[in-house]
Amino acid sequence: xxxxxxxxFSTRPEHLIPDFLKHLSRYGEPHTWxxxxxxxxxxxDIQVLLRDFVVPEGLIPRVGLAxxxxxxxxxxxxxxxxxxWSPITGQLYAVGHCCGFNYFNDGVLSEGLRQExxxxxxxxxxxxxxxxxxxxxxxxxxxxxxLPRARxxxxxxxxxxxxxxxKRANELYRSAGDGGYLTVVRRQAGAEEARGGLQxxxxxxxDRPLQGHLILHKPRSAKLAEAxxxxxxxxxxxxxxRTLDNAFEWLCDQPDIDLKRLSDILGDxxxxxxxxxxxxxxxxxxxxxxxxxxxxxxxxxxDTLQAEIRVFRPMPNKLTVWRxxxxxxxxxxxxxxxxxxxxxxxxxxEETPPG
Length: 355
Ligand SMILES: [Zn+2]
Known about the structure:
This protein has helices spanning 3-8, 17-27, 60-63, 97-131, 133-164, 166-176, 225-236, 244-253, 256-286, 289-301; strands at residues 47-54, 66-68, 72-78, 80-85, 92-96, 182-188, 199-205, 309-315, 318-323, 326-327, 331-332. By secondary structure, it is of the alpha+beta class. Strands 8, 9, 10 and 11 form a four-stranded antiparallel β-sheet that branches. Helix 4 (97-131) packs parallel to helix 9 (256-286), helix 5 crosses helix 9 and helix 7 runs antiparallel to helix 9. The relative contact order is 0.11. The structure holds zinc ion.
């Protein structure tokens, strides 16, 4: 096959069907068509280009039956056949119903299953989106309302971590571990306990767990609270549904992929809002004076060479952080920092989430 033809055949060559039919009606010999491949077609990935063509009856007395490249490449065999195409080999095959039927049947069946599966997924997305159609506006409004506080939250957390230093913030976060209790490492010089020299023993510190320490954990990949609210809302704003009918019409028009995208974005809006609210509550817990006292007492007990940290809240709207003798610039706190975060909207999930 020439390079030009190869290119031509790399997409489903529907345009060659008229040429094939012309050849068939004129010569009655599918196997002598110029694009017919005399090799048997591959077993996999065969598409039926033309189903149920028939050698013209009037020509049979003269040209005889057609040869099937699969079961009868030399001797005349069939009247009814199918024109197959392989996207893998790029070849076309005129084969008898004797053999083509297998490919054909398989092909139709798997195509049918594929379409059925796609329909099922689409239906699940449609159901999910219709059940949650009001959430599109709810999440957008929620993000708008919470945005100033989210920016404020990001600012305070950033300044707090910078004042403590990232290293000390991490240390505090790790020390609290999963249970939330701070721990201290004490060096032991006693010969019995410390086999092999000077060793540290980790002990639980304080009579209550540290609160809100999750805000100190900021992996590089973690987005700011602002971004987690704004990003999904920016997309949802384009979905301007005012009524259920609006939503229904929109869903009927959109391709499958957009239904999936919208479902995913609603999921992001839900998890993003919930995380942001949880972090706001964690910050409020962290800033409670007793919690700061716990940190300061812990830092004094740390038997390490690192600078002691002390965090104070001398006034409700002011936070000061000391690292050794160095005082960081005071952090101004907005009055809403102590208020509980609002309850974020939640999606309705009736059955298994759409795939
Ligand atoms: Zn055959």
